[in-house]
Amino acid sequence: MPQCLTKYHGEMEYDEKATLHFARGLFGFEAETRFLSIEQPALRPLVFLQSLSTPDLCFVSLPVFVVDKDYFLSIDPDDLEAVGLLSKRQPTIGIDILCLAIVCIQNGGPTTANLLAPVVVNRQNSQAIQAVSLNRRHSHQAPLPAATEELACS
Amino acid sequence: MLVMLRREGESILIGDDVEIRILAINGSRVKVGIAAPRSIPVLAREVKLLRAENIAAAEVSSKDAAVMVASLFRQSPPNES
Torsion over CA of A69, A36, A51 and B68, rounded to 10 degrees? Predict the structure, then answer.
């Protein structure tokens, strides 16, 4: 099995078949096309997106439903086609696709999740894309539900 | 903001070097062609925002911070139905 160096998990063996392929990279990281999704039981529900070409690049993400239980996917048919999904209907999260929101953890600031540009992974072929939601109410800096509760309590 | 009405196939010139042409109109979507010198960056507005957001997300995160975020959910497990 191939090995890779990771930002948070030291050296890891990985299964080539589990590699996510972002043909267009991610916004700001257009050259980064291969990522590993890493989950750790102790750190659920976090999903780490580790670059396979840059050990120091690892995004922290959350399933969109963890951030917003009513999240409604609305992405461009062209983006669906780009990862080999049918463009005629929106795919079902959890069945056709994994849908992750990249988390931004700011020092001293609120932790937010990017619901405007979810990472969409076709579960059939591991092709992935960071799409832009057509629903403009989706924020690129959505508050985390737990953080919201904390505010409400204080 | 200057507002101009254009039809399919018509163009707008900005200065001497930039041309914006309405290539096709399809329902609520407009296909726009932009001819500009390489020195002028052209990108969709949201792309600029999302690049900055990803760069911030990649820079600031640390494992300790991630552990803290995960702990937020352990106290009140999300309902993933």
Answer: 50
Contact flag B55-A28 (C-beta cutoff 8 Å): yes
pLDDT digits (tens, 9 = 90+) for A15-31: 888 899 999 999 999 99
Q: Hey, of A6, A24, A30, A43, which one would you mutate to test binding to chain B, going by the most B CBs within 10 A of its CB?
A: A43
Contact A13, A3 (CB under 8 A): yes
Name residue B14's beta-bridge partners. Answer: B18
Q: Are A86 and A78 in contact (CB under 8 A)?
A: no
At residue A32, the 3 state secondary structure works out as: coil
Taking each helix axis from N to C end, the angle separating A145-153 and B63-75, rounded to the nearest 10 degrees, works out to: 70
| Chain A contact for B11 (CB, 8 A cutoff) | no
Distance from the Cα of B10 to chain A's closest Cα (Å) equals 25
Q: Which of A58, A53, A133 is nearest to A103 (CA)?
A: A58
ipTM: 0.89
- The predicted pLDDT at position B76 comes to 52
Determine, for residues B60 and A27 on separate chains, whether the beta-carbon distance falls below 8 Å. Answer: no
- Which of 75-94 (A) contact B at CB < 8 A? none
Residue A15 is encoded by which pair of tokens? Answer: 């299964």
CA distances A101 to A7, A112, A121, A122, B29, Å, are 19, 9, 12, 15, 26
What does the pLDDT look like over B27-75, one tens digit per residue? 988 999 999 999 999 988 889 999 999 999 998 767 788 888 888 887 6
Closest C-alpha to A139, from A121, A104, A112? A112
